[in-house]
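[Meeting: bench + compute handoff]

Bench side (C.D.) handed over the final construct sequence. Compute side (W.E.) agreed to return the predicted structure before the next meeting so the bench team could plan truncations. Sequence as handed over:
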Amino acid sequence: MQEVNFDEAIEQILAQDARYHRDAYFFLRDALDHTQKLVARQARGQMRHINGPELLNGVRDYALQQFGPMTLTVFEEWGVHATNDFGAIVFNMIEIGLLAKTEKDQPADFSGVYDFDDAFRKPFLPASKRAAAKPEAKPASA
């Protein structure tokens, strides 16, 4: 069987599931590479499987590096609105053979890992607005 290249595989995915822009798949591939390098650095050069939350942390880091305050705008253009959307992209890539998974990996691993507003908008707010955005502690009742 002939190995399908990445572009062709993405076209096959998009023919079956058009929820996400093709650029989201390319971004995820690059974010996975970024995450693997970070994990390998921490593990003294040893490569290992990346789980959903680890990948999402790498996605956040890589997105902020690549797009800065425009991250939410870019993601919205791609149809990505929450961490579970990246899970759907990952599992689309797994189904077509672009990524591998373990028996423990499941789409739920990507659900609600972080809030997009907290991850991608708040870092760029002025300090006074970031402080105001935090919920204040309620005084103890007497």
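W.E. noted at the follow-up: The helical segments are 6-16, 22-42, 52-67, 71-78, 83-96, 116-121, 127-133. C.D. will use this when planning the next construct.
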